[in-house]
Amino acid sequence: MSSNVPQSLIFDIGSANCRIGFNTSDHPQKVFASLTGNQKTVFSIGESQKERVYGNEVIDKRNVLNVNHLVRGGKIHNWEEIEYL
Fold it and tell me: What sections of the chain are H helices per DSSP?
């Protein structure tokens, strides 16, 4: 890109992934799952529990979480949860 183009931050929130980068770069700097999750049950004692997890961590812990798919069919279905991404 031309050096006189101002640098802008680009957020692309898709059904599967969020991509974040700059308009002056060919590739996003960060890619992660566009998911949030809440624990189904609290079962461990003495361990700090997160109220909500997001991104790729949701995929790793999907068996113990209620998973929220925030974007379906190109439309955001949960604006409150989108803020956690």
Answer: 56-60, 79-82
Token output for 28: 């996003």
In a domain? residue 65: yes
For the whole model, what pTM was predicted? 0.73
Q: pLDDT (tens digit, 9 = 90+) per residue, 19-41?
A: 999 999 999 999 999 999 988 77
Place of tokens 């995929």: 59
Q: Give me 5's structure tokens.
A: 């183009």
- DSSP 8-state assignment for residue 61: T
**Enclosing domain of residue 31:** 9-77
What are the Cα distances from residue 49, in Å, to 31, 38, 42, 52, 68?
Answer: 25, 11, 8, 9, 18
